[in-house]
Amino acid sequence: GFGESAKVNAREDDFAYLQQLASVGRGHFQRCGASLSSLQGAFTALSSTISKTRSSNGRHSAADTDATGRSVSTTVVTEGPQQESHAVAGPGGSMPATISEVPVEDQFSSDDDSLHGIGREHSVLAARNNIEFELPHPEEIFRDVQNKDLWRDFSAAQTSFKFNGTTFDRRPDMSRVYLRRKPFMQGGMRLVYGMVLERGLGNGSGQISAPEHMMCAKRLFQDLGGNSGFRAHAAFCKSTAVAHYYARAFRATTRIQLGFLECHLYSPVGAGEDGYHFCGEKWLKGHFVKLNSNAGFVNEFDYSEHSTIAQAFSHFTFDQSNGELLVVDLQGICGGDETNPYFLLTDPQVHSRGSYERFGNGDLGEQGIAAFFQKHRCGDWCRRLRLRKDYEILAATHIVRMPGVSDCIAYLLSDCRALFAQLANSSGVSVKVPREANDDWLDIRLWATEKSGAKAQDLLERKLAGFYEKARSVVAVEPLPPWDACRWHAQLETWRRESGAFLVPFPSDWQKRGVVKELWAFANFLGNGRYNHKKSAYACKLIRETLEQAATATGGSSTSAATSSATTQPERWTQYQDKSGSKYWYRDPDGFWFWENDK
To answer: Could you give the 3-state DSSP secondary structure of residue 207?
Structure first.
């Protein structure tokens, strides 16, 4: 859309249908005023979209065609108003099957990830083709709340997240939710529905009492099983919580009115409503502006003053978190003038460097941070705030590898707290321990001089050895089965699911080498220095049996496909008691165990 109405919120309805058509057609909607810079920005965005489409289609194989030979590959480019789609119901009123989320602009995934993403993208397309959308006007979306053909209502657990700069606080609540049966918009990951809470309705009138009670619900195209759905939606809420935290600091420092809509996670409860989740936030009416993206895009033409401040805010979050976090994907309503600008933003994305959990599939980590700073040019606000460059926030000088086990993290953060304080006070060593077990192996990062860092490394490795002695059982893989990395991943997940134990393959770079030499099974920490080895012992048994079968099937050694590390560690018997009171004996280091009442 072109012209002055494209820049004026009062004429927003002029472009509502075009916005929806672009969203539903997986296309691009660009707003611009009647100026040379705005036109340049519009055509720059258009050419970028075409380049992305060609690039993505070029990666698809010849197999991605239908019976007539026509390409069925799909490219999703969504930089329009509602970047994150909301969950939607189909024409029949029931919620359709949804698909696991796909990063829209993830240009940094590996080849394997890209190929896997293509398959999911086709599934997303199949689901989208069965969706019926309603008109994108508030008058249409929020009418007749008591009409069961248009709305469904249910009780839902509401989870709110708050970030304090280090950890997240979770606050539960219960709400009665009214949700439209049809969506009105979609993005690359989610569908968007009209929504209102029961407290937003008038006294028994069934009508929304005020515009501020209008809300949007955003739900993934596919519901993920188990806790995966909750975690996927929690990632969106946690990104917003991080953005809220740094926006408060930014406002206090600059006096610029920059804020974010609150985002809550809703989990329906009750008959026929269990098993899915969605995010909810207030309806935001006005001209949506995308100021930057999670893949390096920077709006350099439209709302240039607002864009400059937005880029400075992203840089500010990186500086204030000491290079651990970067808030990007800034989009929403911009207003005011150069002397008094304001921002009300929604759907931010956080890139993280490892000290925190990953913030969903849109978290591109180091590569996302690098993409931002490759494009970012510090302006007046960056200089006023004395923001450090990315290279000025130094990389760690020393690394200690640790298994990605939550009990090991808890052990380091509690039992080693005094050690970390001593290292900081006496040697000036800074230690960063991961707070989430989001991978098989994690990095403990240290900043220190060469001599102090080497000493700290040695002390940390001794502490880890103490944890291993109490909690770890080792199964040596011998002989090595002819499995590739994919086969090992699948088998590890099977062992973990069947045993419920924490399993970690060794060495830490086994995926790069293509060889697993040992499997480490960790006991459950009970507190006060006590560990329950029941699950880890059962996992060791499963591992030996599976490897024995693999050796037999491939003509390997028939004596023992997996031998323990008993040749290098002394035998030790320990009696344990499970929660039911049953006692059992456990032998280190091979993990052999039996119930005390066994004959």
So the answer is: coil
Distance CA 274, CA 156 (A): 9
- The full DSSP string for 559-595 is S-SEEEGGGTS--EEEEEE-TTS-EEEEEETT--EEE
DSSP single-letter state for residue 141 = H
DSSP 3-state of 345 = strand
The token pair at 383 is: 């200089």
Separation CA 550–CA 545 (nearest Å):
9
Q: What is the chain's percent helix, strand, coil content, to nearest 5?
A: 35, 25, 40
pLDDT at 226 (0 to 100): 62
Instruction: Say if pTM beats, i.e. exceeds, 0.70.
Output: no
Q: Within a 10 A sphere around the Cβ of 232, how many other Cβ atoms?
A: 22
Check: CB of residue 522 under 8 Å from CB of residue 472.
Answer: yes
Residue 208 CB coordination number (10 Å): 21
Tens digit of each residue's pLDDT (9 = 90 or more) over 353-405: 877 788 998 999 888 888 888 788 899 999 999 999 887 887 888 999 999 99
Residue 499 Cα distances to 512, 523, 536, 583, 593, angstroms: 27, 11, 7, 19, 15
